[in-house]
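Worked example 3 (structure in, sequence out).
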């Protein structure tokens, strides 16, 4: 069984741009393929941004949920 993938989204408040937080977004990527995470991340980050209008996405990365290893 492979580890699941997730996005680590770093976003800053629009009202206070120096206030930034990391947010974890679980990804459903068949087989846990890191390359698929890269492709799926663009859509997921855009969706996250729509749901969180008070935040501005600064960056994101893919990570394994089991050990938080950066991909």
């Amino acid at each position: 069984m492979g580890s699941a993938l997730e996005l680590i989204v770093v976003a800053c408040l629009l009202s206070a741009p120096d206030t930034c937080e990391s947010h974890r977004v679980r990804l459903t990527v068949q087989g846990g393929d890191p390359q698929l995470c890269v492709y799926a991340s663009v859509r997921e980050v855009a969706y996250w941004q729509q749901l969180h209008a008070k935040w501005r996405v600064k960056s994101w990365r893919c990570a394994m949920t089991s050990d938080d290893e950066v991909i």
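Notes: The chain has one domain: 5-64. The radius of gyration is 13 Å.
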